[in-house]
Structures are given as C-alpha cells and as structure tokens.
Amino acid sequence: MTTPGPETDSPRSRVRACIEGSGLPQREFAKRIGLDETKLSKALKGTRRFSPEELIRVAQVAGVTVNWLLSGADDTSGPAATPTAKSLPTRHREGQEQAKKRREIIEASWWLIAEKGYNSVRIADIAAACGTSSASIHYYFATKREIFEETLRYSVKLAFDRQVASLHTIAHPLARLKHLVALQFPTGNTGRAEWSIWLQTWSEVATGGASKENHTQGYRRWYQTVFDLIVVGQQEGVFVDVPADYLATELTSLVDGFGIKVLTGMASTATMRHHIERFIDRSIAVDSQSSESQAAIPEEAPHEP
To answer: Which residues bind DNA (predicted)?
Structure first.
C-alpha cells in the first residue's frame, strides 16, 4: 500500500493528493468512487464534508487508510484499534502505477476467491479478471498463496476503514458497540465476500495451509477494538463490572458463530442482529431498558452496497 503525496493538514487536501497521485482526471476519480463530480468539487473546496462512505471509497481507490485521510497517519488513538503494519496490505517501494496494478490484482483476487473459493481460482482466472497475463500476475506475486495472504490483509483494511470512518461520530458507548458489531455483519455482496475470505482463512489455518501469524494479527485487531469499547463503557458506568476480556471473548465468539451461520444459509442477518443485540443488552449493558432506545442501530449494515 503506497501513501501518495505529502501529509497535509486537512482531509480534503489529502483527498486532493490522492487524486493527483492516481494520475486520473478528477471526473474519472469521482466516477470510481461513485460520487457526482460536482459533489466531489464542493468537498475539495470545503463547502461540503466527505461522508464516511465517501472516505471509505476514496481510501479503497487510492490504496490508503481512512485514518490517513482524516489524520495524515495510519495510527489512531480513537475507538478503532490500529492494525499492525504487517496486518495491512504489504507496502512496496514502487511507483504509483505499479502500486495501482498491485491493488487491482489483490481486489480482483479478493472477489474471485470469495465467490469461487481459493482452491478453484487459478492465476489465469485472476489475470483474465485484471485484463492481463499470468506472467504479469507473477511479476507482482510469486505464488497464489501469497495473493491469498494479501486478500486477508485487504479484508482487515476494509474493516479498519469502516470503523475509523464512523465510530468516532457515536458518543454513547452502547450505541457505539452495537454499531461496531453491525459493521461486521455479512450483509450485501461486500459483507459476504469479506466473511468468505475470513472463513476460508480459518479453514486454511486449521489445516496448515495459511499463515497463522497473518490470521492472528488480523483477528487480534478486531478483538482489541471490541475490548477497548467495552473498557470505555465500563469506565463511563454503562457496562457491567465483569472482566472486559470475558465480555469481549463472548461477544466476538457470538459474532463469529452467527456470521458462519449466515454465510452457510443456516440463519439470516436479521436473526444474527436480534440475538447479538439481546446478548449485549442482557449481558453487557448495565440498564438495558433505558439504554436500548438510545443505542438503536440502523436496520441495514452500513457497508451494504
């Protein structure tokens, strides 16, 4: 992952640096992030703000993190735990064009592996999806296994971007915790693809086919985010006085289990939401009756395409 341009003092100037670094006309960049060019121009001039969803799409196209767009650095002291450098897409010393091509390969591979499964996807399939040759894919990645490891890092980045973009806007700890969980629901094509990559990684780690270290680093970031939010809620007196690691382990395990059930057709996202919200209200919130109305979360997961 390559950070384009100098680190300046505002999100809009960093977005402008991303556009310049992409080599794309502003109109084409706006198209790639799914934003009307007029709205992009207004945001760059400061007459409107970038929404969380827009920042996520800019980060995706430019290959940076949302946190870099907001603060000029990948590290954050906010409500989303910072991934280790090793759990984010690998940085390489290369030009913008090479970095862009590498990202295109990872993103195409991410979708293919999520939809068809790692063992069914060939390098030739990835090359076809990228409109290039197998030799070109091997120029950037020596093996398919190396590509697979990068797809997990890409998933970690997607989750981190979603959390940084929106968690800071929510003040109440219970609402923030429910929102965090909602961000992880396997909803829509993107959400299901992300879960598919994780599920395949768990399977590969269990059989020795994937890097346990890569998986552990990525998962620890998710667990740490949940843990940190629970600690904040306990400090503010709205979460029960139970060891935070117990609560974080129970909640993340419940999310994992229901995510697998949704992905395999054994449960719906609505069922997952219902049971997880009940667990949070029953086992983590001090006063579920008064806090329930304050901590409502949207009916659809925020990363629904």
So the answer is: 122-141
Largest interatomic CA distance in the chain: 61
Structural domain boundaries enclosing 27: 1-75
Q: Give residue for tokens 């310049």.
A: 20
Q: How far is CA 136 from CA 45, 111, 153, 154, 244, in A?
A: 39, 19, 21, 20, 48
30-53 residue pLDDT tens: 999 999 999 999 999 999 999 999
Residue 156 in tokens: 């970690």
Asked, for residue 247, whether it belongs to a domain, the answer is no
CATH number at residue 104: 1.10.10.60
CB burial of residue 186 (10 Å; 0-12, 13-18, 19+): buried
pLDDT at residue 290, as a whole number: 45
Compute φ and ψ for 86, nearest 5 degrees.
-70, -20
Q: pTM of the predicted model, to two decimals?
A: 0.86
What does the block give as tokens for 64? Answer: 């940076």
Q: Which residue, 193, 192, 182, 194, is CA-closest to 300? A: 182
CA pair distance 270, 24, nearest whole angstrom: 40
